[in-house]
Design a protein that fits this description.
Oligomer: heterodimer
Order of helices and strands of chain B: HHEHEHEHEHEHEHHH
Number of helices of chain B: 10
Structural class of chain B: alpha/beta
Largest interface: A-B, 65 and 71 residues
Number of strands of chain A: 0
CATH class of the largest domain in chain B: Alpha Beta
Strand content of chain B: 5-15%
Shape of chain A: extended
Number of strands of chain B: 6
Helix content of chain B: 55-70%
Largest sheet of chain A: none
Radius of gyration of chain B: 21 Å
Order of helices and strands of chain A: HHHHHH
Number of helices of chain A: 6
Structural class of chain A: mainly alpha
Number of domains of chain B: 2
Chain lengths: 213, 264
Amino acid sequence: MTWIEFVQIWIIAFFTISLFSFLYKDNPFYRIAEHIFAGLSAGYYVGLVWHAVILQQMINPMTEGGKWWLVIPGILGVLMFSRFTKKYHWVSRLPLAFVMGNTAGIFILSELHGKVIPQLRSTMLSLNPAQGLEGFLLALIITIGVISTLIYFYFSKEHKGTLGAIAKTGIWFIMISFGAHFGYTVMARISLLIGRILFLIDDWGGSIIWLFS
Amino acid sequence: MQPESVPVFRSERINALIIVLIFSAVILIYTRWARKGKKLFIRKINGLDEVEEAVGRATEMGKPVLFIPGISEIDEIETIAGISILGRVARVTAQYDTPLLVPVRYPMVLAAGQEVVEQAYMEVGKPDAYNKDIVRYVAGEQFAFTAHVNGLMMRERPATNIYMGAFYAESLLLAESGNIAGSIQIAGTAQPAQLPFFIAACDYTLMGEELYAASAYLSREPLLLGGLKGQDWMKVLFVILIVLGIVFVSFDIGDWYLSMFKAV
């Protein structure tokens, strides 16, 4: 281990323990870590946007590839700076409206082609008992699950009577799926925690032994 | 190498065009009815009824309301839904002079958030009470943002936390910190993997579609109500299409019908 590695490990360990200290309560060490983390990320993103967006996606394609039409999104971006003036701050609504309108429009097609239509087709499963018990039951569960969940999200009628019973079935399916998600994600988080604890034991603990040896 | 030319009209995507046309027509019809004064019924959505009550609680306690419009960019439809709900919440906080805190992760969300909050303060006749720092940029990195918001919760102790938008791995960190801070919490997201955490740690949770229905439910504006009714109509249509498809598949007929559901 070199002295540079030693310092790196101690800085990482300091921030790890400072952030973990939030489990006890908000304290000065947590605040130091929080503010450095937030400040670093803000600075990092300025650099990232400059290189990955402004240089790589606008200036370089314009100067090297002759894509001068990219000046249009560039102008839209510059219009955002009008927010700093009192008189013309309304101009910044133009690029905002452009982005939000585009988002909604693009989203309709991507959702239809990426999710709605494929899911409709995937739900159209054969309920013919001749296919065998396993296939039949699986198709039945998927059909009931999808239809009852869709009914749960139907807002135009009070969930009473038959509609209420179907919606209740839907919420059961939703909750079972949430339970599975919960378990899966908790396992993933535990593995992250194990990673941090192993770092503290192996790397940080190892650096302490190195220091005294 | 020359890029392949792309046709202006892609006939294999006609199924999407048909759905969009039906959807648009239904929304326009319902919007027209709503504008003419026809009463459009929407069932009670529990979490949304509590928004105003939760803001009232913050007013009584003299503590702020914390609103997070998700952690995604403005090009995410959930963020747009969150910003739309922020406008409604800001109107209530402006009416009651309740402090509002809106930390955001992206500059474009900052700009959109400031616009709707300023508009809300102007609509209730309190433009002077509006402060640009209500909506504030925190950090671009996901967990730097989360670390700051967690600290903010413990320091400011908001009476009410409202999370509306796209949330990811930070959902439980935020909701648990809010819980420890003793805040009433209302969450809404369409991220299936994060909903269980909000359900476990928040007082009320809007699931998926309920988030998109929220702005129409809260505002009762004809345009939004028309959209919500149109979505409901489409759900009924999809159920019918699924049932028809199941019948065709079960009897091994109607290949033409199934081919309509090819996504290219």
